[in-house]
């Protein structure tokens, strides 16, 4: 399940040394595919070429070493297309209007700006109309749970946060700014975000390790009057529920009647359980390192204790293999190889499996495929990818447009239903239960559903014009 990338190798070949054919052979033997050759310079003694190679990331070093070992070949430089895309960062700030004259300057800066400052001072809510606040989200991380890489620090987390900011802008027109904090202290993080909050219309928490992420989000939601959304928890849950609603249509079952087993009760797993309950699921068994969570046990982890209280109506105990027989749905946000083929075989007829651990799912999709009716993963190289990108742009677009004070369960549930609805009955099948992230109907559908839910639940502080008639205004 290696990821494809491309390398550009600049090599200098001596006339008396190895030929280009020797390089091509070495590259092919190492698993690479030469797709472009550009001559940079040539003389009587040497030729310098840029050779572009498609390669699996896992074998890129092998190709480079193979070329280095050739006699008469000097490897001048190696560029990775992914690294090139990150040079100098991936986002920038640009003005919305030019400053070409003294009059322009006096309007956007001193002295004219003073009047705008005082207008906001006298009416703080006007910051939404007179500053970037109404369309700006902070993407905030401490770098402690970045992708599958773990605690790699704030600087190393920046490329992910920049990428997220790009997606906010491209998909939903939301201006997002990456902020990586050099502290792991819960109180420091809360205090810092509260101090930054006046600039932003919403806070997207990202890649903060469990269980600190729960307290940080809970406290910020209580203490701020703008939406705070930990995407690792809720984004995954929203998109998963959307996929599950469509998968259940295929097997002709309802969420109120199925038995669901969830493994990995961390940030995402706990939020998934809450979303399933909000959607009407009542027969859920949550499994983590200590086995199935049961009400009668005491857990040091308060999230486990909460989940145990709300799930497992039969009080089933034991390992995953003990509780999965007869289950209709398996949802994994745990780790590689947790789910075995025998476990899938023991599930109910037409089993639905969401194996979402990245980069390696709970079960190899090729092993599971013969025994499941619907399979989803977190990977882009298999059908039915459960990807948070389907959620956060639209949910924040909606929250910003109605100036929501929070993102509540009803808004998240509405987002799930909206994502699911993008897949029409004619399109729905085992290989297509969730729309592609570039489907241009996703963000508008989610945005509208979120706005309606915010108005209905009383957290909208502004009703967009197109919703005023249906809301009675």
Characterise this structure.
This protein is of the alpha/beta class. 39% of the residues lie in helices and 18% in strands. It is built from 18 helices and 14 strands. The protein has helices at 20-29, 60-68, 81-86, 102-108, 113-122, 127-130, 154-172, 186-196, 212-223, 231-251, 267-278, 302-310, 320-323, 341-345, 365-368, 392-401, 409-422, 442-457, and strands at 4-14, 33-42, 46-56, 73-80, 136-141, 175-180, 202-205, 228-230, 259-263, 283-288, 291-292, 329-332, 352-355, 374-377. It has a 6-stranded mixed beta sheet, with helices on one face. Strands 2-3-1-4 form a 4-stranded antiparallel beta sheet. Helix 8 (186-196) runs parallel beside helix 9 and helix 10 (231-251) packs across helix 11. It is globular, with a radius of gyration of 26 Å. The mean pLDDT is 93.
What labels would you give this structure?
single chain, 473 residues, 39% helix, globular
Q: Tally of extended strands?
A: 14
Strand order of the largest sheet: 11-10-9-12-13-14
Q: In whole angstroms, how far apart are the ends?
A: 54 Å
Class of secondary structure makeup? alpha/beta
Q: What is the share of helical residues? A: 25-40%
Counting DSSP H or I runs of 4 or more residues, the number of helices is: 18
Return the average pLDDT rounded to an integer. Answer: 93
The share of residues in extended strands comes to 15-25%
Low-confidence regions:
none
Biggest beta sheet attributes: 6 strands, mixed
How large is the radius of gyration? 26 Å
The coarse silhouette is: globular
């Amino acid at each position: 399940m290696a990821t494809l990338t491309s390398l550009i190798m600049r090599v200098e070949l001596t006339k008396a040394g190895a030929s280009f054919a020797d390089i091509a052979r070495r590259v092919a033997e190492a698993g690479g595919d030469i797709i472009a050759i550009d001559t940079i310079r040539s003389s009587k003694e040497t030729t310098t070429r840029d050779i572009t190679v498609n390669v699996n990331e896992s074998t890129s070093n092998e190709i480079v070493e193979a070329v280095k070992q050739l006699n008469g070949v000097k490897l001048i430089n190696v560029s990775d297309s992914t690294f090139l895309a990150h040079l100098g960062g991936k986002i920038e700030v640009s003005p919305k209007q030019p400053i070409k004259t003294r009059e322009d300057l006096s309007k956007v800066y001193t002295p004219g700006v003073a009047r705008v400052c005082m207008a906001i001072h006298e009416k703080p809510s006007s910051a939404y109309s007179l500053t970037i606040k109404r369309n700006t989200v902070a993407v905030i991380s401490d770098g402690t749970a970045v992708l599958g890489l773990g605690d790699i620090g704030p600087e190393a987390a920046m490329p992910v946060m920049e990428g997220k900011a790009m997606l906010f802008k491209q998909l939903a027109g939301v201006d997002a700014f990456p902020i990586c904090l050099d502290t792991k202290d819960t109180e420091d993080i809360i205090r810092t975000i509260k101090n930054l909050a006046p600039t932003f219309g919403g806070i997207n928490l990202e890649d903060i390790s469990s269980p600190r992420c729960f307290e940080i989000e809970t406290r910020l939601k209580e203490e701020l009057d703008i939406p705070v959304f930990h995407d690792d928890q809720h984004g995954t849950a929203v998109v998963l529920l959307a996929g599950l609603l469509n998968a259940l249509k295929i097997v002709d079952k309802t969420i109120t009647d199925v038995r669901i087993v969830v493994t990995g009760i961390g940030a995402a797993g706990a939020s998934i359980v809450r979303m399933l309950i909000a959607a009407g699921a009542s027969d859920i068994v949550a499994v983590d390192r200590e086995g199935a969570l049961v009400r009668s046990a005491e857990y040091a982890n308060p999230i486990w204790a909460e989940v145990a209280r709300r799930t497992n109506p039969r009080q089933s105990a034991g390992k995953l293999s003990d509780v999965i027989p007869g289950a209709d749905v398996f949802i994994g946000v745990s780790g590689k190889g947790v789910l075995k083929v025998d476990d899938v075989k023991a599930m109910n007829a037409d089993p639905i499996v969401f194996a979402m651990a990245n980069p390696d799912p709970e079960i190899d999709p090729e092993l599971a495929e013969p025994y499941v009716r619907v399979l989803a993963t977190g990977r882009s190289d298999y059908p039915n990818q459960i990807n948070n990108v389907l959620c956060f742009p639209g949910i924040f677009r909606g929250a910003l447009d109605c100036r929501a004070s929070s993102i509540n369960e009803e808004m998240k549930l509405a987002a799930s239903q909206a994502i699911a609805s993008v897949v029409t009955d004619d399109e729905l099948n085992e290989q297509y239960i969730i729309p592609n992230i570039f489907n241009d109907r996703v963000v508008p559908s989610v945005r509208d559903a979120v706005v309606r839910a915010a108005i209905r639940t009383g957290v909208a502080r502004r009703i967009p014009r197109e919703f005023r008639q249906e809301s009675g205004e």
